Amino acid sequence: MTPWERFAAVARGGAAEKIPVAFIVDSPWIPGFFGIDTLDYFLRPDEWLRVNLALRDRFPEIAWIPGFWVEYGMAVEPSVFGARVMWHHDQAPSIEHVPGGLATLLQFELADPQQHGLMPLILQRYAVAEKRLLPEGLPIKMVAARGPLAIAGWLLGITELLVGLKTDPEPHARLLDTITTLVIAWLRAQIGVLRAPEAILVLDDIVGMLSPKMFEQFARPYYARIFSAFDGMIRVFHNDTPCAYLLAPMSTLGFDVFNFSHEIDIADAQTKMPRVALMGNVPTLDVMVRGTPAQAETWARECIRKTNGRGLILSAGGGVSPGTPAEMIDAVVKAIDNR
């Protein structure tokens, strides 16, 4: 089986001949790992393709998630709302909150991924990239989007968003509903330019900052709508905010794979999410960046022990952090090989 086939088998509730290893990687890590300018990574399709192929060749046992990801950090979805994006040579872009806040955002008409912000550029990049990848037998398997709360947090500010959900819920709910419609349209637009995508990835850490009551009010309606819109595809949810108290309710949102914080015990997660494949959860900073290969392998082996390898996709407890060296990733793979 290929790394993707192992990932897909476990994601769909089955088993592979060995435990799959997968990591979420994007522009905060890849350019620095290969020693290239972040702007070159964004603007030079040849460099983007070269390093993504090199990543696959350097780590042949790993499924990279989403894999051949055309992204501009967190800037894509906020760009359709007029958020100002600040670009950097050595890190992913940063985003300023939209002037005028909620009142301004509620005046926007629904964005069209084919016309607005950075989205049309990404769609074109995907179409061109897959033309080069298909002859090598490498179709792009997964598309991605930030979740509604994460996008709203970038547009308004996280503190402002969380306070607003509590003190002025109705207009904030309208904004989340609009963003949810955009997220679905954006994922569908990406799917539409690819030959045979099989999965979606939704990333949103803000969900884990809600109370159980606020989760039911401001997360469940929107995320359940997103995941139900892609029934039949593999649906991956990333939320690495420690929120053990939300594991059971989150498990019913409709996703198939959960990438979560190392601060959540993987055995507890398996108990509370029995029908979800768990993608985790070696610590991203304390171990994968600051630790030793032996520590990474030990932690990975503990994940295997606690779950008995059932429904497990071995990974970090979040995306790969800037500064993560190759030998730490190798150590996680070694935990599988030495099992």
Kindly describe this structure.
Helix 15 links the parallel strand 9 and strand 10. The protein has a single domain (3-267), classed as TIM Barrel (Alpha-Beta Barrel), CATH 3.20.20.210. The longest helix is centred in the middle third of the chain and has 24 residues, at 169-192. It starts with a helix and ends with a helix. It has a 6-stranded parallel beta sheet with strand order 5-6-7-8-9-10, with helices on both faces. With 339 residues, it is α/β, with parallel strands linked by helices. The chain has 16 helices and 10 strands. The chain is globular.
Number of helices: 16
> Taking all residues together, what is the mean pLDDT?
97
* Helix content, binned percent: 40-55%
Q: What is the architecture at the second tier of CATH?
A: Alpha-Beta Barrel
Descriptive tags:
339 residues; TIM Barrel; 6-stranded parallel beta sheet; 13% strand
Summarize the structure.
The protein has 339 residues and is α/β, with parallel strands linked by helices.
Layout of strands and helices, then pairs:
Elements: H1 3-11, E1 21-24, H2 30-34, H3 38-43, H4 45-58, E2 62-65, H5 76-79, E3 85-86, E4 94-95, H6 101-105, H7 119-133, E5 142-146, H8 148-156, H9 158-167, H10 169-192, E6 199-203, H11 212-218, H12 220-228, E7 234-239, H13 247-250, E8 257-260, H14 266-272, E9 277-282, H15 293-307, E10 312-316, H16 326-337
Parallel strand pairs: 1-2, 5-6, 6-7, 7-8, 8-9, 9-10
Antiparallel strand pairs: 3-4
